[in-house]
Amino acid sequence: MGDGRRYVGAGERRVRLGLRQRLAGSARSAGPEEVADALVALHGSDPATVFLAVGARLADATRTVSETERALYTDRTLVRMHGMRHTVFVFPTELTAVVHASTGLTVAARERATLLKDMAAAGAPDAAWLKEVEESALAALARRGQATASELAEDEPRLRERFVYAAGKSYEGTHTVSTRLLKVLGVEGKVVRGRPLGSWTSSQFRWAVAPAHPELDVAEAQASLLGRWLAACGPATEADLKWWTGWRVTEVRRALAAIGARAVTLDEGTGFVTAEDEDPVPDSGEPWAALLPGLDPTAMGWRERDWYLAPGIRPALFDYSGNIGPTVWWNGRVVGGWAQRADGEVVWRLLDTEGVGREAEEKIRAEAARLQGWVGDTRVTPRFRTPLEKELVAGA
């Protein structure tokens, strides 16, 4: 290219994706900690996504549930907490301080201010009262180890008090103090979600006191997080980085400068890689297929997705809020979607058949059988349902 920058085409980006996202067969991981470390973060808005995303990347998927539960609830090497874009993720525990400082502090201040404003508008008690309830609830949680909101309210009854939110508006509702306060405490990094009440697909979580972590400088934490993500997902555009982090563009640019990121040329324009990642990544020729869950961190990893997801098939794979559903991948591209029917059968449909021949279909079929094998008797319904997923479940 005339500007001296290296051009990184869609083909090389797909090779990088297969290797660094642990999807190519030779790149699969030994355990959930390796998966989370490689991806930086696992989407946790839908609890099942965490397990399905891990299982798709393990060399031995039969250990998915037991090993992921061990990491989350026994060893605590993985933590479910709020992160980028005010979304729940699962992070390696050693990354919690970085996430908290780089993305959580700003959101936390806004959330607490909003809660206090809503309570004041409803004539509820003031900030001093809320602080007293908060300290009492945290002490009760520390004594119990893990607890639901209802269990904490047995120790601190004021958590049950209700106030009207957005009175007179179309979205008016009634919230308990516990519902809003625990959310704020989660964003502030004081509590995290613990073991669910049900199976690994359950969204009814207990709460636990967050692991202690040092308070980091915000700019340094942002540079650290962006560097880790760029190593896993680069090259990426400035728009990708801003979207994934939820930061202001000035913060993204400051972090890029801090890590000495290198500019490259993409089909979308200027992209960035880490200083250690400028060399081309050769294609080994290893073909791979994957069935990834809704909200998978790879499918949701970039704002600009044309290089791995054809625009024409998007309407079938996304819900109305922009959440991606279960996807079928072939050699770094989304080529279709999948679903699990009531009888447990994993079914799939191709939407983009370019370059998808007999070998691809055989490998996709093998991945569907692999998934169905380790999921067993569990039935998984995505939290955010998409047109294709609904059609496949209905047998259409």
From TrEMBL:
GO MF annotation terms: DNA binding
Superkingdom, taxonomy of origin: Bacteria
InterPro entries, alphabetized: AlkZ-like
Record keywords: DNA-binding
A Pfam family recorded for this sequence: AlkZ-like
UniProt entry tagged with the keyword DNA-binding: yes
PANTHER family (alphabetical): LMO0824 PROTEIN, WINGED HELIX DNA-BINDING DOMAIN-CONTAINING PROTEIN
Annotated protein name in UniProt: Winged helix DNA-binding domain-containing protein
Native source organism of the sequence: Streptomyces akebiae
